[in-house]
Amino acid sequence: MNLSTNNGENLKISIEVSLGCFVWFSDSNERRRVAIKCETVEEQRKLNSFTNFQHNSIITFSNIFKQNGQIFMASTLKMNLGTCKNLLNSTYIEGFPEPVIKIIAKNVLKGLMFLHSNGIIHRGVCAQNILLDTEGEIRLAITQNVIKIKDCPRWIGQLNRVHSFAGLEDSFVWLAPEVLRQDLNGYGIESDIYSFGIFICELSNGIAPFAEMEPLRILYEKLRGTTPFLMDSQTSENGKKFLIENFLPICTNLSMSHLYTIMNKGLLHMNF
């Protein structure tokens, strides 16, 4: 089937793989590319507003097309290894080796810091939203959960805080306590660093902390201060030592001021 995109490009659509909100298809030149599903026109417009944010650790989607009533937005990249979540489910069931986690972590952090410097909160840092390919590309995907602080209603005296909570029901496992709390303080870019810590546990353990809990139990545990841990910290003195000693104490510290300080000093300057 040949479809015309918003860029006037004709795509011969042959969807081969579907992983979560992402699909892989072959275009008219037999190039394999990745696209994201959009449930509504509003989602498509929102994702389209991020196409100007270009970075080597970020993947955005711009070419819009439809198939059988479903809206898709395609990237020019192939990302043919799929998502980190797919690799955890199929190959690295007990988690990635630490050297691999370090490489992925550094790239994701670069993408996050770029978004934060532009006043953007990702709100979806998890294995499902990290795409990889065989040429070494590691990209944090811009998905429907991403928001621009300037586009959100803000209260006087809280210019860098937002109070938008809609659409996050499926992300309880990764969300920071201040996001789940939904109180007058709102949340800011530092909430992504907590999610990043949960993501590191997910890569290391093969499953995210809290993943087997009901949403109400997740809310209870996070608000009472329960912090995640790496399974290796319980079973081995040497296993994934760098992650245990460096990343998790920083990322899952529940003090927002602590997270903000760490972010500004530069989590990226750690010895990877």
Give a structural overview.
This is Protein kinase domain-containing protein. One of its GO terms (molecular function) is ATP binding. Belongs to the protein kinase superfamily. STE Ser/Thr protein kinase family. STE20 subfamily. Residues 1-272 form the Protein kinase domain. Pfam families: Pkinase. Helix content is 33%, strand content 18%. By secondary structure, the protein is an alpha+beta fold. The protein has two domains: 2-76, Phosphorylase Kinase, domain 1, CATH 3.30.200.20; 82-270, Transferase(Phosphotransferase) domain 1 (Transferase(Phosphotransferase), domain 1, Orthogonal Bundle). Strands 3-4-5-8-7 form a five-stranded antiparallel beta sheet. It has a four-stranded mixed beta sheet with strand order 6-12-11-9. A two-stranded antiparallel ribbon has the order 1-2. Helix 3 (98-117) runs antiparallel to helix 5. The longest helix is centred in the middle third of the chain and has 20 residues, at 98-117. It is globular.
